[in-house]
């Protein structure tokens, strides 16, 4: 790589980093566009993506140590995606040898960002305990901060749902709430999804769509309520099983029902 090419790569990297973190003025934008036209191995959006995932990763969340096997899979996938040779188990030296000066630096940024994203996001997906704890905290905060919560308990109505327990909590002021289930059978999202219906006699003859949701564990599930219309005076909450994405009007049957406690 010539000195001129190296300087151009350095300047391009600097401009991309500035754009991703603080933005560019018109003059710097024109300079960056010119450099990108002459550097075919850059797409131009790499550091924008990196800044985004690092920002997401900085969001407070509960994490645990990344398992070695998962780390190696992430590394292999990230390096394969960006066209590099597979590094030796989280060691960048073998990958570094495959690149010139600037592409090597890009590979490091992008692979590192992939690992950070995996630690912050994938670990929560693969760790149900972390996810339940986070939702539990949201539920507890909702109960503590809402002064007009109405509640009810679930009752299974059909075969296979007799053991379902738990209940719901709804705030009219906040127009939000949560459902809690125990022993609600898990569903396959590719086949069907649970859907909540809220009966409000003061609004309409038809129940209000409370949103669709999935359950992957029958032990304990906490689900936020996503009412599609305002709910003024709810009287009954009911659950059906529908096609993926839900329906506008349900044919039933009602699997689980809960009446608002008086």
Please provide a written account of the structure:
A hairpin with a 4-residue loop joins strand 3 and strand 4. The strands form two sheets. A five-stranded antiparallel sheet has the order 2-9-8-5-6, with no helix packed on it. The protein is elongated, with a radius of gyration of 26 Å. It is built from seven helices and nine strands, in the order H-H-H-H-H-H-H-E-E-E-E-E-E-E-E-E. Mean pLDDT is 76; it is low at 84-102. The protein is α+β, with helices and mostly antiparallel strands and 262 residues long.
Task: Write out key terms for the chains shown.
262 residues; alpha+beta; four-stranded antiparallel β-sheet; 19% strand
H/E element sequence: HHHHHHHEEEEEEEEE
Which stretches of 5+ consecutive residues score pLDDT under 50?
Answer: 84-102
Approximately how much helix is present in the residues?
Answer: 40-55%
- How are the strands of the largest sheet arranged? 2-9-8-5-6
Q: Report the biggest beta sheet as strand number plus sense, adding barrel if it closes.
A: 5 strands, antiparallel
Summarize the structure.
Helix content is 40%, strand content 19%.
How are the secondary structure elements laid out?
Layout: H1 3-21, H2 26-38, H3 46-57, H4 68-81, H5 93-96, H6 101-126, H7 128-145, E1 149-153, E2 155-156, E3 165-171, E4 176-182, E5 193-199, E6 208-213, E7 221-224, E8 236-242, E9 256-259
Antiparallel strand pairs: 1-3, 2-9, 3-4, 4-7, 5-6, 5-8, 8-9
Helix pairs in contact: 1-2, 1-3, 3-6, 4-6
């Amino acid at each position: 790589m010539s000195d001129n090419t190296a300087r151009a790569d350095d300047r391009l990297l600097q401009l991309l980093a500035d754009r991703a973190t603080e933005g560019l003025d018109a003059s710097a934008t024109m300079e960056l566009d010119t450099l990108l036209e002459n550097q075919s191995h850059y797409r131009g959006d790499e550091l924008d993506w990196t800044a985004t995932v690092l920002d997401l990763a900085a969001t407070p969340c509960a994490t645990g140590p990344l398992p070695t096997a998962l780390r190696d899979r992430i590394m292999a996938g990230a390096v394969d995606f960006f066209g590099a040779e597979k590094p030796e188990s989280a060691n960048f030296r073998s990958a570094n040898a495959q690149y010139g000066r600037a592409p090597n630096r890009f590979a490091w940024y992008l692979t590192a960002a992939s690992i950070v994203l995996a630690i912050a996001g994938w670990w929560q997906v693969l760790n149900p305990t972390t996810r339940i704890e986070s939702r539990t905290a949201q539920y507890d905060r909702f109960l503590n901060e809402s002064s007009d919560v109405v509640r009810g308990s679930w009752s299974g109505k059909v075969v296979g749902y007799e053991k379902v327990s738990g209940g719901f909590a709804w705030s009219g002021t906040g127009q939000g709430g949560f459902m809690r289930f125990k022993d609600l059978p898990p569903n396959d999202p590719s086949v069907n999804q649970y859907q909540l219906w809220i009966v409000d006699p003061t609004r309409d003859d038809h129940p209000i769509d409370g949103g669709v949701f999935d359950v992957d564990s029958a032990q304990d599930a906490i689900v936020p309520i996503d009412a599609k219309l305002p709910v003024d005076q709810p009287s009954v909450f009911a659950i059906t099983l529908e096609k993926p994405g839900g329906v506008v009007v349900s044919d039933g049957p009602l699997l689980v029902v809960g009446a608002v406690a008086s």
